[in-house]
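Section 5: illustrative case.
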């Protein structure tokens, strides 16, 4: 097994979902101690490890290698798995590395693994290395935002957080998180509990897959509830959907209280057919199931007037592609993703993630989301704002990287901007003059339980990384 894959396996055995990065950070710190390398760990669990240049490369410009330690923790609904303590169960299927029933965490564990392998291998040729392992990238780039970068000396940076081999990213969108609270009032209702479960949607990364017409489970349940509300009394007792704000929701579940004799069965069959038919081609595994559960004499439900305001908000809140780029054909310029919804005792809690390559467009989108929220009687809190990453013209690093790729593979390198957010924007803003490029191996269905990595692509990416360091 290649050394970087061995490190990836070790990483996969340590819980490292976003917000739970102390153990994985300490693992990297222990590695630095064992290798007798200079390191710095901060209060946000970020780690910087320094390795001096190899013989003959002391006068070459230094390089930052960068990736994040946290992963999006997503599992199949039927899988019993605790991301705070259970190790991932890795498996191979042909050329693909996967995890059984959960996300793989190759976004961005493969970056951490390759950086550790570079640091551990004294036979490699490279300039001075500053390996930066950030945390909580997936929930707002919190680690990078909190990091003191004043002691970083490098002129170049290789970000290893891309997911298409041969696609080299030189610019990305900025974004934020909008946390919405809609207060509720409750009433006691008699009747049976009707459970509706929408599952089987593809989901995926809300930046990379937002333009692929994938169903949003929360909005689909909202549409179903609006149609039901127009024909039958509606009493919501439970509601939850989605895994993270930057993941297109692949499931959503709601519990209503109703009387079975009111003709719900034929109505549900009719409405489910209407809603699911829209996504038959793009969502082949979509499923809407319902069943009755006996309840106590009375169940606490949200008052219908409040439920109506929620459903109005779900119908009107901006979601999906809002604008396409006028400069780059086929590129999404502005979008939003309603990623999670939860009904708590205090109210409905929603999180949506606006993105845009243009700061002003993102600000306008946030104002629109705020306006609809306040119209529905809710409150909004903006967190996790991160800047876009502008293109650096005439970049020498870009020339070095793309030439190395083309000579190694015989393939033409594709240089592009992406709609997803990368930490490169924060590094670019904090370190003036820093040239950055992002690349990585082929990853598929990231931020979902179907996430997988091409092993052959990972090997080519590893060889490319070694060659780039030699050429710099």
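Designed sequence:
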């Amino acid at each position: 097994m290649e050394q970087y894959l061995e490190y990836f396996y070790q990483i996969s055995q340590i819980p490292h979902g976003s917000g739970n990065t102390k153990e994985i950070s300490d693992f990297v710190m222990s590695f630095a101690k064992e290798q007798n390398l200079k390191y710095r760990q901060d209060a946000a669990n970020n780690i910087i490890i320094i390795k001096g240049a190899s013989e003959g490369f002391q006068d070459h410009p230094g390089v930052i290698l960068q990736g994040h330690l946290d992963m999006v923790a997503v599992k199949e609904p039927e899988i019993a798995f605790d991301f705070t303590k259970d190790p991932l169960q890795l498996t191979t299927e042909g050329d693909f590395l996967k995890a059984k029933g959960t996300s793989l965490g190759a976004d961005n564990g493969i970056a951490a693994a390759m950086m550790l392998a570079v640091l551990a291998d004294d036979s490699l040729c490279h300039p001075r290395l500053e390996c930066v392992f950030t945390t909580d990238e997936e929930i707002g780039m919190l680690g990078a935002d909190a990091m003191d970068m004043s002691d970083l000396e490098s002129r170049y940076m290789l970000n290893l957080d891309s997911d298409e081999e041969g696609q080299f990213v030189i610019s990305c969108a900025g974004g934020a998180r909008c946390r919405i609270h809609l207060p509720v009032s409750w009433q006691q209702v008699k009747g049976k509990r009707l459970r509706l479960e929408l599952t089987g949607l593809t989901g995926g990364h809300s930046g990379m897959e937002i333009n692929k017409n994938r169903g949003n489970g929360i909005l689909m349940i909202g549409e179903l509830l609006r149609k039901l509300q127009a024909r039958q009394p509606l009493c919501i007792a439970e509601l939850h959907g989605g895994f993270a704000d930057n993941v297109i929701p692949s499931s959503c579940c709601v519990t209503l209280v109703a009387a079975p004799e009111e003709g719900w069965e034929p109505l549900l069959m009719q409405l489910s057919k209407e809603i699911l038919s829209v996504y038959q081609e793009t969502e082949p595994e979509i499923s809407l199931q319902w069943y009755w559960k006996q309840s106590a004499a009375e169940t606490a439900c949200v008052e219908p007037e409040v439920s109506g305001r929620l459903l109005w908000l779900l119908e009107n809140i901006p979601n999906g592609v809002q604008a396409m780029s006028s400069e780059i054909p086929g590129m999404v310029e502005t979008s939003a993703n309603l990623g999670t919804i939860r009904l708590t005792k205090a109210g409905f809690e929603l999180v949506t993630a606006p993105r845009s390559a243009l700061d002003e467009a993102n600000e306008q989108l946030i104002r629109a989301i705020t306006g609809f929220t306040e119209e529905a009687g809710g409150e909004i809190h903006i967190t996790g704002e991160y800047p876009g990453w502008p293109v650096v013209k005439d970049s020498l690093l870009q020339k070095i990287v793309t030439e190395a790729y083309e000579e190694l593979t015989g393939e033409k390198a594709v240089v592009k901007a992406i709609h997803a957010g990368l930490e490169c924007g924060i590094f670019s803003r904090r370190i003036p003059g820093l040239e950055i490029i992002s690349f990585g191996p082929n990853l598929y269905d990231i931020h979902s339980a179907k996430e997988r990595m091409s092993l052959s692509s990972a090997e080519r990416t590893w060889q490319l990384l070694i060659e780039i360091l030699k050429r710099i």
